[in-house]
């Protein structure tokens, strides 16, 4: 009947119609193969993630171990202050040891434009800032950066780390010594002068000479001292033009009130 043909007859199991699954054996095989390929691909992807993570974990553990191997309260082996080996010393021992790097009778030769002068440590109150120098020596390999510490742990096993001493000095005396040396090269500069008579005033411009600013030469000298140098320390001492006369300054000078005799 039409009901049977349309698959709507429900008079009994004998006449029930159920469509057959027409998938071939080859289709089923392909499905199984795809499933296995997906599972295999997932396994490979997991390995691709796990292996690099494991390698990074091992490397990081090595970095931490190297960083932790640095001595806590002593200077690391092969740490030098200029030519002085301070490895294995605590901070107080380093401070005491570096004091002798500059003696009060030590002489330092500065040069400029083919001229030279000798500065004595005592004359400019030059010495070693032992506390700051010791602090820097102890801090080698003990920063908050574990990768930097690990680098020093490796480096100091076969090489040395040299730090410069920190000098202390009297800036006023040092600047004066450098300026005096500069005047032997560039001459002494003078400012404008005024000569008065009963009816006139004569204004003379200043003469050029050594620049009063010796900050560049001071830095060059101290950098050399920090590195342990004593001889042929090249410094720059510049030549300066005299002060330019200004109209208002001339006017104020001429119009000054008369002074009581």
Which terms summarize this structure?
261 residues, alpha+beta, three-stranded mixed beta sheet, 8 helices, 12 strands, 15% strand
Brief synopsis:
By secondary structure, this protein is α+β, with helices and mostly antiparallel strands.
Describe this structure in words.
The chain is an alpha+beta fold. Helices cover about 45% and strands about 15% of the residues. It contains 8 helices and 12 strands. The strands form 5 sheets. Strands 2-1-6 form a 3-stranded mixed β-sheet. Strands 4-3-11 form a 3-stranded mixed β-sheet, covered by helices on one side. Strands 5-7 form a two-stranded antiparallel sheet. Strand 3 (about 105-110) and strand 4 (about 115-120) form a beta hairpin. Helix 2 (about 25-70) packs across helix 5 and helix 3 (about 90-100) packs across helix 4. It is elongated and about 95 Å long. The model is unreliable at about 1-10 and about 65-70 (pLDDT under 50).
């Amino acid at each position: 009947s039409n009901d049977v043909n349309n698959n709507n007859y429900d008079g009994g199991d004998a006449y029930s119609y159920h469509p057959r699954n027409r998938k071939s054996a080859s289709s089923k095989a392909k499905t199984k193969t795809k499933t296995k390929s997906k599972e295999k691909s997932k396994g490979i992807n997991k390995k691709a993630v796990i292996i690099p993570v494991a390698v990074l974990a091992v490397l990081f553990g090595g970095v931490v171990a190297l960083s932790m191997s640095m001595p806590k309260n002593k200077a690391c082996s092969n740490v030098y202050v200029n030519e002085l080996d301070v490895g294995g010393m605590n901070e107080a021992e380093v401070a005491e040891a570096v004091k002798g790097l500059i003696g009060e009778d030590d002489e330092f030769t500065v040069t400029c434009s083919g001229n030279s002068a000798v500065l004595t440590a005592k004359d400019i109150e030059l010495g070693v800032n032992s506390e700051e120098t010791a602090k820097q020596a102890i801090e080698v390999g003990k920063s908050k950066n574990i990768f930097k510490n690990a680098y020093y742990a490796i480096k100091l096993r076969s090489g040395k780390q040299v730090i410069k001493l920190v000098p202390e000095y009297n800036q006023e005396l040092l600047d004066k010594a450098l300026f005096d040396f500069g005047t032997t090269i560039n001459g002494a500069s003078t400012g404008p002068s005024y000569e008065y008579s009963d009816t006139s005033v004569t204004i003379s411009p200043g003469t050029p000479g050594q620049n009063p600013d010796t900050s560049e030469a001071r830095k060059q000298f101290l950098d050399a001292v920090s590195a342990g140098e004593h001889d042929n320390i090249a410094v720059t001492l510049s030549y300066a033009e005299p002060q330019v006369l200004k109209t208002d300054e001339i006017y104020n000078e001429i119009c000054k009130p008369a002074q009581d005799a």
